[in-house]
Known about the structure:
Layout: H1 2-14, H2 23-26, E1 31-37, E2 43-49, E3 51-53, E4 56-61, H3 63-70, E5 77-82, E6 85-94, H4 99-109, H5 113-116, E7 123-129
Amino acid sequence: MRQLLLALTVAFAAAPALADWDPAAFSKEETLEFRTTAPGESEHWSTVWLVVIDGQVYMRLGSRAAGRVESNTTKPTLAIRIGGQTFEKVTAEPAPDMAEAVAKAMHEKYWSDVFIQYFDHPLTLRLVPAP
């Protein structure tokens, strides 16, 4: 029993709390990483841009990254690395209604979006930390 309590204490101390999910702070970050695992493969970390709109974190994915998310064995849950923290359980909610607003925010935040905006971005996701 003592070992179980020690393991749980270490696990909770190591993982950022839901209270650490801070979209306002994340808005200053340039990128985030997300982890997917395709059937029969090991985990894969991808790096993408992010924007924060109305207190919500969004990412816009190209075809390859969208395919990884669609085939992810933990779908709709991803692990997210952002601002020096790792959040193991974040729900990636498709947000097609926000695609235009996210594209506009990306264009305003990232100077190189002047080129990237013309690439296909079939998936816009809202990231919501799981309790």
